[in-house]
Amino acid sequence: MRTRQPTTTLEDQPIPVRAKLAAAWTSFMFLYAYMDILNFFTPGVIEDILDGRVFEFDLSQTFSTTALTLIAIPIFMVVLSMTLPARANRTMNLIVASVYVPVTAFNVAGESWLYFYGLGVALELILLALILRYAWTWPRTAPSATMATSPDRETVRAQQQA
After folding, report:
1. Kindly report the CA angle at 105 between 101 and 106, in degrees rounded to 5?
2. pLDDT, tens digit, for every residue of 69-109?
């Protein structure tokens, strides 16, 4: 007869907000890039590109610079989410994700492959909502008792000079 081994519970360690934000921005970038790549398989897209047009826009240095900027900002948010101080980090994530909600929603406008673009945009919007939620609910710490009772810098400086 077999004896049952006791089951153990997996340790579920908390994930830092910075890591959650960086992971969400990374996932956003994968969706963003793969939607563009898979779009090449949409009938007529390659022909339009060869004719110098993307969607309703003429291919130009301005178009390419704008497209690069639109993709570079979320790419940099991956790094900034891990490196900025907490207050600046929270603010940047709230601002950039809020700006990208309408930018992302615009991508579905006028598209004929509504299931493809609708799903892609919906997934991107879910990730942006997660980013907004993580940044908005960033945990706060109460001031420590030693901070409240410790002298401020000016007091310490004045005492040292005396």
Report:
1. 120
2. 999 999 999 999 999 999 999 999 999 999 999 999 887 77
Residue with tokens 């609708």, as numbered in its chain: 118
78 vs 9: CA distance, rounded Å: 32
Cα distance between residue 76 and residue 25, in whole Å: 9
Provide the whole-model pTM: 0.77
Question: Is residue 73 within 8 Å of residue 128, measured between CB atoms?
Answer: no
5 by DSSP, 3-state: which?
coil
d(CA 125, CA 32): 11
Domain ranges of the chain: 17-139
* In 55-160, beta strands by DSSP E: 57-58
Alpha carbons 61 and 64: distance in angstroms, whole number: 5
Show the CA angle centred on residue 34, arms to residues 30 and 39, nearest 5°: 155
CB 134 within 8 A of CB 19: no
